[in-house]
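USER:
Before I trust my own judgement here, I would like a peer's view. Write it directly below this note and I will take it from there.

ASSISTANT:
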Amino acid sequence: MKSPTALALLLPLLAVLVSAAPTPATHEARQFQAQITFSGAAGASYTLSVPTDGSDFPINNPLSVSSISLAGGASCGFVGIDGSETTVVGADEVAVGPPQVQVSGSCLGL
């Protein structure tokens, strides 16, 4: 009787690992446009739709922002003109301290 080779033992394991790996369609399904609202003084605000693929995006609006809210489904980080760093996770609103113009951001789908 022949003993099984290492390859014969590894093939079932490889089949299980390959079938459990996320497909590109699964990864693409998590990518969407996050809806972010930047709010300043006296009720001023603006909203951006941004990719959730982790890429950096510029923010070109002169409003001094005091809070950032996210509709949900993503985790986003923002950098202000004076060095503030603000992170918003899921459906939440976070204060920017001190209020300042935002210059860039990045979001990842959850």
The chain has two helices and eight strands. Helices lie at 6-20, 24-30.
